[in-house]
Structure formats: C-alpha cells, structure tokens
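Why run this: before we spend reagent on co-expression, it is cheaper to look at a predicted model of the complex and decide which construct boundaries make sense. The entries below are exactly what would go into the expression plan.
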Amino acid sequence: MRKDYLQNPVKHIKINGTLTVNQLIQQFQRSGSFGAGKLARACNIYEKMLRDKDCTVFLALSGALVPAGMRTLIADLIRAKLVDVIVTTGANMVHDAIEALDGHHYKGNWIVDDYDLYRQHIFRIYDVFVAEEDYVKLDYQLAEMYRKIAIERKGTRLSSNEFAFELGKRLKDPNSILHAAYEEHVPIFIPAVRDSEFGYIHLLHASQENQKNILEVSAFKETPLICQICEKSPRNGMIVIGGGVPRNTIQSAAIAAKKGIDYAVVITMDRPETGGLSGSTLRESISWGKVKGEADKIMVIGDALVMFPMIVASVIERLGSDFTRTSGSKRRNPETKRKK
Amino acid sequence: MGNVKKGKRFCGNCVNHNPYEYPLRIFCSKRYSKNKDPIVDTLWCCGDWNPVNQYCHCVRDATREKNST
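The model came back. Tokens follow.
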C-alpha cells in the first residue's frame, strides 16, 4: 500500500549546548537518514548484544586503530566486560606493545616528504608518525620475550591466542589491550600473526646463533577453540571494524560451529565491488550462512575512528552505571581461575 | 655504494643498522644474531660492514650531534 511507505516522517535534528552523545544518536535515529540512521541502528544492535545474556560479543579489529588512538578505548571495553573475544590483525597488537614499552605514536601530516621521513627513520601511517627506534626497541625486547616464552613452554607450539596471552602477561601497562585481555581472560586471536612485526621479530629471535629455544606459533591450533566458543554460545554477535582476516575468522568460526552470526555491526569504508571481505555486504555473508538470514545487522559506512567511539559512548550511556555483565570466559568456564 | 672508502664506513651507513637512540646509537641485527651486544655507536664500524641500499641521515646527524657537544 502506498501509505505504508509514508509512515515515519523525518524528525529534524536539534542541537543544544548540553546534548550528550546518546541524545545525539537518538536524534539520528528519529531523523533516520543515511549514515546517521545507520549509526543509530548500530548502537541499538550493540546494546541488544550486551543485554542478551546468552550472546558472546566478538570484536574484529583491522586497520590502524591503535596508532590512531583507539587503544585505551578497546582496553576499557575489555575491562568493562563489554567484549568477550577479540580477533585482530597482528599490527594492532604490535602497536599496542610499542606503547606498552614506552613508545609513542605522533600526530603528523599526510602532506609530507616521505623520502625525508625515510632518511630520518620515521614511518608514516596516513597522518600518524612512528619513530623507527620505537619499533627497534620493541623488536629487541620482544625477541628476548620470545626466547623466555619458548623456554617456559618447553618447545610446545602455541596458538595465536596463547601467544597473545603470554605477551599480555609480560606487558605490565594497564592501558595495554594485550595486558587487559590477559587480566580479564579475554582471548585475543591473531590469525595472520606472521603478517606483522611479530613475524619479523621471530626472524630476529630465530637468527641468534646457538638458539636452542625457538618459539613456535601454529596457525591451525586455535581453529577448534574459536569454533568451540561459537558453538557453546547460544547466540553470537560481532562488531567489525574494517574487515579482512579478522572479520572472516569470526564468520567462518560461526558457520563451522553450525551456528551463524545473530547480531552484526560492520564499520567500513570499503566497497563490495572488488569481492574483498572488508567491503562485502552482510547480505553477501548471509548467502554463505555465516550471518543468519534473520540476524539483526547493519553496515555503517564511515571512518571507524569517528563511528566506533560514538557507538561505545552512546551504548555505555544507555546501559547506565549499574549495568553488569558476566564475561564470556566466565560463562564458558564458570569454575576456571587463571594463575597469574 | 660498495666503493665507500674505509674512513666513510660507519655502522650508521651499514645495511644492518637500525636506529636505537637516534642519531647516536644503533641496533645491529648482525651482532644480535651473533650473540654480541647489538647496541653500538652510529659512528663506529666493524669488519662485517656492508653498504645500505638507501642512504639515511644517521651518519650526518650523528656527526653533527657529536661535533656540537
């Protein structure tokens, strides 16, 4: 019927001086238009995931989120039990470790002489700069950590989440994602761990003459574990920043567990036409069975550095200070206590 | 660059150098692999020297800083 199309008039946004983030998002919801409407819907879905006591919340991280300032936000989400499992690129955890070892990321500029930066040993990530010596100090210290982990683990192969756990145990910075995840028993899966500085630190570690204790990380060891998490959880939700390997790791685990994703929020600026996963629509994921046909889902097209903090701020405001949530690890293993 | 004269050969223009405390100290991956102390002066040089494939400012800036102190 024609009138069915014309049910909800757009309510115009009104800004006043005391507007909170969630109040603004609520206005986005009432205006309902374009990116603003999608952002409001993303907040609703994340809120639903958190209020659903049977939902495990997966967070997929790709893109240079930590260099751009999202480190503390993610560590805080872990500590507030607003995320249960993290799947990430190696690079984001490398940058987390750089800061945990007193390195820094600097506000820079994208209009700059890159060859001059090269000659001064400064790396550029769009408009963020990193001094190469912060990487080198990381390489040196982590190569030593790798050796100690290999000795402690007595030659057994680690999965990427065990590797992240070992790093988190040794990095003492409370703002570190790796350290927060270690303390809060949140598994961090790094499926493409070799494709980051972690891989090249391994090269350095293994290059030492007479090195008898070489750390081994197996790419396949974690597959049953992440599938088991999906399988045991009555419902699974994912928040994806970017996409790529981390997004597919979660989706593939969900289908391997014969479950499918129940709630999905994807924040990306990629396009679907290339067939690459970062731009693929959630409807496309439905065709594979990775995301359920009836899933509550939204794809937000925008800069995650703007979108994600707004989603988190809005949802935390909605939940209120009395809201508590049992962590995913506690729901999975209520009796388990980790030795520290 | 393979023809760099001996007096112009420094850790800071060797292929194994990585900045450690820019510009005066470098981390040498070659020494690390040989279980030797990998942190050495940018303006030092050893017998394993090999030229960098792209010049950087390490030697220039280390020389300036050394001369200014």
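Chain A touches chain B at residues 118-121, 131-133, 136-137, 139-140, 143, 204, 207-210 (CB under 8 Å). DSSP finds 14 helices and nine strands in chain A. Bring this page to Monday's planning discussion.
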